[in-house]
């Protein structure tokens, strides 16, 4: 049984039973993070999102959007057009979370030269191991 | 082929070939994020980390630490004691990234009342579906 030092806080991602852990995973998951990042630039239709989030399958993007919509981070708007058209956009809550996420993404992108240099040093010191990608 | 609007940036997580995407996943992965968050409070030994990151297996924590060490975010220090003892701590780069990550975690934890209310609304409007957790 882990005893977290912040037991006075109502939610704690370090506790496996806390629902905030699942939401953090929706936000930071491979496709969740890229979806929130893409929608931060403005509302997008499903196929626009699919192109922006390079490599996502239709099924995974659909699941990702459902989880984010259920958590109140993404709003799905079916336009009354013919053919019907569905737009996705961030809710105010989604915008707030996406801002923090984008600060993290930009931090990682901005320090990739250092990360790649660290990887080279690590691999040179351990030529016998086959590291994960 | 996705054409990202920020092609002048050297690294872009939206591009599936960019190495920053793997690093973002190490940072935001289920165990990577909690490991970085735990180490932000100070250096920890393996078993201390395992208790703090509630629910992680020995194997997953070991893999997580290797990936973070290889990316230059975590430093592993073997103490010359008997029995030998290994401490893990954030590098300056790891601290920088962990700060952004913790801002995101606190944002999610701080808005969980809204997230749970959104989930209730979503599930009440779609009683026939069985949503993902």
From TrEMBL, chains A, B:
InterPro entries named among the record's database cross-references: HTH_HxlR (IPR002577), WH-like_DNA-bd_sf (IPR036388), WH_DNA-bd_sf (IPR036390)
Classification lineage: Bacteria, Bacillati, Actinomycetota, Actinomycetes, Kitasatosporales
Name of the protein this chain belongs to: HxlR family transcriptional regulator
Spans through the membrane: none
């Amino acid at each position: 049984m882990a005893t977290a030092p912040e037991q006075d806080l109502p939610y704690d991602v370090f506790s496996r039973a806390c629902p905030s852990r699942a939401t953090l995973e929706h936000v930071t998951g491979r496709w969740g993070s890229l979806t929130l990042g893409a929608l931060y630039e403005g509302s997008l239709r499903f196929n626009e999102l699919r192109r922006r989030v390079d490599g996502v399958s239709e099924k995974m993007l659909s699941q990702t959007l459902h989880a984010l919509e259920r958590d109140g981070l993404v709003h799905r708007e079916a336009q009354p057009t013919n053919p019907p058209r569905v737009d996705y956009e961030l809710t105010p809550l989604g915008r707030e979370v996406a801002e923090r996420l984008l600060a993290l993404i930009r931090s990682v992108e901005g320090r990739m030269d250092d990360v790649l240099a660290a990887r080279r040093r690590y691999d040179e010191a351990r030529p016998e191991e086959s590291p994960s990608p």
